[in-house]
Specification:
Length: 68
């Protein structure tokens, strides 16, 4: 088994986090929307939390913490 690593970098993850992933500006109107559980390091978890309900963009996808 490879060592677990963060979704967005090579650091070891702090925790598994429920995230909503979508395309477009608004999760309420997004056609493509996924509920995922991902491993994220401390730095990126803090950034995700700081982004709040507006979400954080990565490679064309938007992410925010929580499944709602
Ligand atoms: Zn990371």
């Amino acid at each position: 088994m490879p060592a677990p690593r963060c979704l967005w970098c090579t650091d070891p993850p702090l925790d598994e986090v429920a995230v909503l992933r979508w395309r477009g500006p608004n999760p309420d109107t997004a056609d493509v929307k996924e509920r995922l559980t991902v491993a994220i390091c401390r730095k990126h978890l803090e950034r995700l939390r700081k982004a709040g309900t507006h979400g954080r963009e990565n490679k064309g996808w938007m992410y925010k913490e929580g499944w709602w």
